[in-house]
Amino acid sequence: MGVTEGKRRLVFTTADLVLLALLSGEKKLSDLTVPGKGDLSSVTVYRKLDKLRDYGFVEERRGERGRRFLRLTEKGRRIAVTLKVLEEELEQ
């Protein structure tokens, strides 16, 4: 059955979707995508990432040639796992 994209947009904010996308591991900023939102490397997402970093949910590191990599902190992982449980409940 699965969560419809409409439900995902209704329930989850862009920040929530970023956390869910990072739950699978570190990602290069330019590769950050989520179902229903597509490419997340926009001005809106940069603002959300700033907030997520301010709250201590996401860490950023610079790789070769200034590439930006994002990963969840332990605190961010706990939040993302909780969001994943909510997503699974919506699937039922």
Characteristics of this structure?
two-stranded antiparallel ribbon; 4 helices; 5 strands; alpha+beta; Arc Repressor Mutant, subunit A; 3-stranded antiparallel β-sheet; 92 residues
Task: Write up what this structure looks like.
- A hairpin with a 5-residue loop joins strand 4 (58-62) and strand 5.
- This protein is 50% helix and 17% strand.
- The protein has helices spanning 5-11, 14-22, 43-54, 74-91, and strands at 27-28, 33-34, 38-39, 58-62, 68-72.
- The chain is of the alpha+beta class.
Write the layout of secondary structure elements.
Blueprint: H1 5-11, H2 14-22, E1 27-28, E2 33-34, E3 38-39, H3 43-54, E4 58-62, E5 68-72, H4 74-91
Antiparallel strand pairs: 1-5, 2-3, 4-5
What fold name goes in the CATH topology slot? Answer: Arc Repressor Mutant, subunit A
Count of DSSP helices? 4
Q: Could you give a short account of the major beta sheet? A: 3 strands, antiparallel
Distance between the termini: 8 Å
Task: Tell me the CATH superfamily.
Answer: Winged helix-like DNA-binding domain superfamily/Winged helix DNA-binding domain
Strand order of the largest sheet: 1-5-4
Per CATH, the architecture is Orthogonal Bundle
| The top level CATH class name | Mainly Alpha
Q: How big a fraction of the residues is strand? A: 15-25%
Number of domains: 1
Structural class computed from helices and strand pairing = alpha+beta
Low-confidence stretches: none
Helical content, roughly?
A: 40-55%
Question: Based on DSSP secondary structure assignment, what is the total number of beta strands?
Answer: 5
Mean pLDDT across every amino acid position: 82
Please compute the radius of gyration using only Cα atoms: 13 Å
String of helices and strands: HHEEEHEEH
- Global morphology: globular
